[in-house]
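For the sake of clarity, the format in which proteins appear in this thesis is described at this point. Each number in the token line that follows is a code from a learned vocabulary of backbone shapes. One such record is shown here in full, so that the layout can be seen directly:
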Amino acid sequence: MLYNLLVPFADEFTALNLFRYLTFRTGGAVLTAFILSLVIGPKLIRWLKSKQKEGQPIREDGPESHFKKAGTPTMGGFMILASVTVSTLLWSDLTNMFVWYALIVMVGFGCIGFADDFAKLTTKSVDGVSARTRILIQIFIVALVTIGINYTLPNTLEGKIAIPFFKDLYLDLGWLFGGWALLVVIGSANAVNLTDGLDGLAIVPIGIVAACFGLIAYLVGNAVFSQYLQISYVPGTGELAVICGALVGAAMGFLWFNAPPAQVFMGDTGSLSMGGLLGTIALITKHELVLAIVGGLFVMETLSVILQVASYKIRGKRIFKMAPIHHHFEKSGWSEPTVVMRFWIIAVVFALIGLSSLKLR
């Protein structure tokens, strides 16, 4: 909004030229989202506590240490959702359709998560909205947005997947691209959701992946840098760096309240919306496979659940003491802070490997 309002006057007021720079507006989005989170946080937590007397339901088969968390409110993801939305609307170019596609998925998935959190609280159960209902609504949102993305992308990239570590290597999916989009966005949303099981565990990797894709969006949207790095050039994607910056700022603000011992949980309101947002940005920047590397921690958590279920159904035996895998390590005697910090380290390593794909071609 500031870009659209102030840049037309930049020729008269030189200082307003700052708003032409994507890096300046991204920095502004980081700071704005961080401050908004700190301001919203205490009031939101007090309000959630007044409405959620017993807090988020705790799994009966979970680690015993988790019962100490009874009474901790959930739906804190609203703090992130509000901060990212306001910051993005304030600092981005609102004529850019890619920004709107990302916001639609983020807010849409956030509403699904809110409904799920609300259902869990009202029924006092870990079961919320049925998985079938959640998936159907997610499919509807992603299908609509994918049509818009394909319409906005250059014709040379429509329906194609860029293969990391190779220059000018694409896989043309044609009409199957719609199914690929569903897999990327919905898979990303639910992978983040599975990871959100310990205080601070999911929010830091979310911030790390957002920072990586802020850089990727900036490079992909710049003709000079994309040509130098031999990656896909997608005009207009640079503006997504602003929303990524807003997510980094909001993640830092949320961590202030979510650090062990957590004052609030993000709930599905936060995990589904943030995961969906990251998947959409990966889709637009043509770096879907890089998301699987940069967000390797989320992939690892998801695979642990898939393997656990498959093993039990086929062999009648479990591979892990409990899935997702962070609970396995808790059951093995690791303290919660130890699991969280070591997983953060793993997230950084995955991010560095993913970013190396930009140069190693």
